[in-house]
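Sample A.
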Amino acid sequence: MAKRQFKAESKRLLEMMINSIYTQKEIFLRELVSNASDAMDKIYYKALTDEELVFNKEDYFIKVTADKEKRLLTITDTGIGMTKEELENNLGVIAKSGSLAFKSENESKDGHDIIGQFGVGFYSAFMVADEITVISKALGSDEAFKWKSKGADGYTIVSTEKDAVGTEITLKIKENTEDEQYDEFLEEHRLKAIIKKYSDFIRYPIKMDVKEQRPKEGSEDELEEVVEEQTINSMVPIWRKNKNELTTEDYENFYAEKHYGYDKPLKHIHISADGTVVYKAILFIPESTPFDYYTKEYEKGLELYSSGVLIMDKCSDLLPDYFSFVKGMVDSEDLSLNISREMLQHDRQLKLIAKNIKNKIKSQLQSLLKDERDKYEKFYESFGRQLKHGVYSDYGANKDVLQDLIMFYSSKEKKLVSLSEYIDGMPEDQKYIYYATGESIERIEKMPQTELVLDKGYEILYFTEDIDEFAIKMLMNYKEKEFKSVSSGDLGIEPEENEKKSDEEENENKELFEHMKNLLSNKVKDVKASKRLKNHPVCLSAEGDLSIEMEKILAQMPDNQGVKAEKILEINVNHEVFQSLKTAFQNDKDKLNLYTNLLYNQALLIEGLSIGDPVEFTNDICKIMV
C-alpha cells in the first residue's frame, strides 16, 4: 500500500493554512459538520433532476460519537459519499473544495445552499488529531474506500467495506500537552457546547448518544444512568422564518437565548435582503446600558453566520462605533465559511452588508424618535452619549448620519428636544442655536449668562455631559444655523437701550476697566461692561473656539497641557456693585483691588472653577465685613 503525496502542497503550506485561518481549535468540529451537511445537500440537488432518486429529509442526519478510551472522535453522515477519485481530488489537494465545484454546477435558490466554499476546513482537524481516517461509500456505488493520513507527509487510499451510503470520519485525538488539553474534544458536554455554538442551525439533525440520569424503575429515590440518542441542534433559525410568523415574544426569547443582554430589547429589526448582496439579519436595540459599555473591555460586534454556520462571535466590522450598542446576528450565503478576521476586513460583500445595516439602524432610530418618543428617550438615556461621541470622533466624518438623532434638554420645553424641533420653534429674528454648558440642569438655570437670551424669548439647549460641546463644535451648524454659547463674546442679539448704556458706561469708565484688567492681567484677557447681565453683578465669558467648560474638561485629562480659554470678566453696569467700583476707583485704589479680586473669584465660582488662593479669598471677604 503505497503512500501518496499531496498534490503540489507541502507541510509548510498545511501548517500555514491552519495557523492563519483558524484561531480556535474547536473550529474543526464546525468544519466537519458543515462538510457532512454539504454531502446531504448534494443528494437533494441530484434528486431535483433524477426522477428515480427520492429525497426524504427524515433519512438524513449527522452522528457524533466519542470513545474516550481509544481517544477516537467519529463524525458520520448519510450524505452522498465519495468515490475513490473524489477522495483523491477533494482530500488529496489542500484547498480543493468539492462543495464549491458542485455548487457552481448546481445553483439553486430554494433554501438548500452548499456551505463549504474554501476547501480547507477538513484539514483543520489536524489541529486536534494525530491521524484522520475517512471511510466513504458514494451514492450508486457498490465499493467503499478508506482514506488515511497523519498530516502533510501524505495519505493512503484502499478498498474497504461499508454498508450504507455516506461518509465516516474518525479522528485519533492528540494526547494532552502542558499547553493544550485535547481531552476536552472527547467530553460529551464540550462537544454538545461546540455544536450548539457553531452548528445549531444546520438544517439536518446532529445526533449524539447522551448520558442521562433518570429514576430507577420500581424505586422512589434511586437513580440509574441511561444512554439515549438526542438531537443536539435546533435546525431552524429564527431569521429564516417569515416575519409574519413571529411574535414580539419570539424575538425576546431569541434575545435571551443568545445572551445578548439581561434586559428586554427596546426594538428589533428583522432584515431579509435580496439585492446586490443577499443576507438575513436580526438586530436588537437594547433597553439598558451593559455594565461595561463605556469601558475599554466592552467588545462590539454582531454574530456572523455563513448559511447558518457561525463564523465569528463578534464581527466588529459590521457595526460603526457609534452604533456599537446594537446586538444581533447576520447570516449570508455570500460569505466564505472559512474566512479569517484579516480577510473579512477587505471583503466587499461584508462592507455592503455593514453599510445596509448602518442605514437600517439609523432609519429605525428615526422612526422611534418620531413615533415612539417614550421609547426613544429611554434609549437615549442609555446610549445618547455614544451618538454624541460619534458626531465628535473621526473629525466629524459621521455628523451627517447622527445629527438628526441627538437631543438636548430645552430651557423652554423642560425636556429633551432634537435639533430639528429646536429649529422649528425658533422666532424669525433668532440668528443662532443657543446653548449653555454646566454640570447639571439646576446649575445652568442659575447661570447669569443666560439672562439676556431668555429675556429675548429664545430657547437654550442645556449641555450637561462633557462630550456635548465638543460634539457641537464639530457639528458647527444645523440647517444653516450656527451654534452659539451663551457665554461667548458676541451673542448676535441686537442692542437695546440698556445695552447702549453699557457701551456709554464702558467708554466713560475706560480707565476703571483698564485698571481692573491690569490687576488681573495673567488671569483674564479683558474686563468690560456686560451686555448680557440683567440681575447678576458679574460673569465670565470666553472668546475663541475654546470655552470655559471645555477648559475644565481638558484639565481633567491625563495628558492635560494646561490649555486655557480666553476669559473676559464682564461687569453689570446697571448693578449697585458697579457704583461701588466707580467710587473706589476715585477714592481708594486698595479697595478697588479688593473688589476686583472678589468679583473675579465670584465669577470663577459661578463657572465651577477652582479659586487660585482660597485663603486669600476668605480674608478678602473678612475685610469687607469689618
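Sample B.
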Amino acid sequence: MSSPDPQISEASRSTIRQLDDSAINRIAAGEVIERPASAVKELVENAIDAGATRITVDIADGGKTLIRVTDDGCGMSAEDLPLALSRHATSKIDGSDLLNIHTFGFRGEALPSLGAVGRLTITSRASGNDAAQVRVAGGKVDPVKPAALRAGTVVELRDLFYATPARLKFMRTDRAEAQAIGDVIKRLAMAEPSVGFTLRDVSGGGEGRVTFRADPLSGDLFDALHGRLSSVLGREFAENALKIDATREGLRLYGYAALPTYTRGAAVAQFLFVNTRPVKDKMLTGALRAAYFDFLSRDRHPAAALFIDCDPTLVDVNVHPAKSEVRFRDPGLARGLIVSSLRHALAEAGHRASTTVAGATLGAMRPEQAGGQGAPHVYQMDRPSMGARTAAYSAQRPDYAPVPPYQPPQQTGGFAEMASAYSGQVIDEPSAPAAEQEQPPEALPLGAARGQVHENYIIAQTADGMVIVDQHAAHERLVYEKLKKQMGENGVAAQALLIPEIIELSDNDCARLLAVAEELAKFGLGIEAFGGNAVAVRETPAILGEVNAEAMVKDILDELDDQGESQLVQARLEAILSRVACHGSIRSGRRMRGEEMNALLREMEATPHSGQCNHGRPTYVELKLSDIERLFGRT
C-alpha cells in the first residue's frame, strides 16, 4: 500500500505554482551551464554564429572568477541587448522548423542562464550603430548604457555560480577547469579552421599567459583542416593521418584518421563533428572503434578527427541540453559510412606504419657522451659520391661475383672467433640480370634485404635509409590476411548441434537477437525463434569447437545494448584465425635465405595492413639516412 510522500504536505499537495523568471533561469542554467567550460562553449559558439574571424578568450582561476570572450563578429544594437537576455529569444531561427538548423545555437538559453548564476556584462557594436553595454547579475538586468567599442562583441562573465553557491562545491581545481576550457576551445578550433582562436590565462592580473593559439587558415578545405589539426593535435598526428573523403546517400564524411600504429592508451584523441558541431555520440564512437576493430589490441584506441556533413533535416541536434549528442534519421547509414570509409583508407595505406615508431627507435639510441659530459663531438665528414654509392650498390647485387672474403688465421682472436656462431648473415640470392630488372630493389618502398640478425630481424636497404623487419610479426600478418580472405570468399563453416540449445530471454532481448540473426548466420551462428521469448541455437561456428551457446548469446546481447551492434562472433573467429596464423608463420630463430627475405618484403608491400601485426604492434621500423648520420655525429 502506498504511503503519503513526506516531502509534500497536505496543504500544498494540490497546489501548482508558476515559478518566477529568476528561478526558471537558475534551473535552466543547471542544465546548460554545468561548469566554466560549458559557459565558454556557449559564448564561443555565439561568436562563431555572429561571423567572427578572430576570437579571444580570457579566463582567471579556471573560469570561476572571470570568463571574457572578445570577437569581431556582426555585433548587436542597443535595442537588441535587453532582448538577448530574455529566455528563448534568438536571431538564429524563427521557430517554424526545429530541424532545419544551420547554426551552433538556436534555443536562446545561454545568455539568460549565465546572467542568472553570475555577473554578466555584454558590450557590443553593430555596423552603423553606436556601442552599448548591458549588465545583469543574479537575474537582475540593469538599463542599457552607451559604451566604447570599435566593433564586435565583448561578453564578460564574473563570479560564475555566485547566485547558486552550492554549485561551487562541485567545481574541480582551477587547473582541471582550465584544462576543460582548453579542450572546448580546441574542439571548436578544429571545427572552424578559418577562425582564429586565442586562449589566455589572466589569473593574477596583467596581460596573462597565452595557453593556446591558432591563427585563421584559408585555402583548400583539406589543406586548412590539415594545418589546423597539426597545430591542435600535434605534428605527429598530421604526419601519420590518412585523408578521408567519402559520400553516401546525402551524407559526406571527411577528415583525417591515424594509422593503426599511431594509437593512444585512451579514447582522448577521437573528435567527431556533425555539420561542424562537436559531438560525443556513442553510435559514432562505436563506428570508429569498429573500423579499427581488426587492427588494435583492446587496450589501444585510434586517433581521428572526422566530420559528417549532411542536410540539417537528416539529423536532430535538439536531443541533448548541451547539444553534445545528435540523432540521425538513418543511424545505420552514418555508421556504415564511417566503417567502410575508414577501412577502405586503411587498406589503401597498405604496409605504411607511423613515423612515431621510428622516432621511438631513434629515441632509444643515444650517442655516447664524450668523456661522460658535454655534447658529443660532431665530425665533419664527406658523403660518398654518387659514383661511389653506385659501385657499392652494384657490389651488393645478388648477381655480382664477389671476391672471396679474407680468412684470418685461426690463432688470431677477435672477429675470427665469431665465425662459427655468427648472429648476422648476408646470403646471396639468384635473380634476373640487372638489365632485366625494372628498378633496383633499393627503390622499392621496403628496399632490398641485406641481411638477417639474431635470426629474427631482416635488415633492408632503401633509397634513403634502412628498414628493420620483424620477420615473425610480418609473416603472421600476411598469413592472417590470407585466412581472412579465404573465410570471406568461402564463408564460415557451421556445425549443427545434435540437440539445439533453447535459451529463455526477455521480450526485448529476444526481439533484438532475432533482428540480427541473419547477420550472425554469416559467421556460422544459427539462431531461430522457438516460441514465446525463447530462441533455439541450432548451429555454431565449426572453427570454435565446443561452445557455451547461452553465454555467447548473452554476451552478444550485452554488446547490442552497449554499442547497438555486436562483433563478438566475428571477434572470436578472427581470434582463432590469428592463433592459426601465429603458429603457421615463420618462427623467430629461423635463418632465411636472401630470396625468402626479399619475397617477404615484396608481399608486405602488396598486402593491406601489413604495417602492424595482429596485436597492433609495428612489423617494421624505417630509419632515414639523415637520422642515422645524426646518431653518429655526421653532418
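B remarks: The chain has 19 helices and 24 strands. Confidence is low (pLDDT under 50) at residues 374-382, 398-403, 405-429, 431-437.
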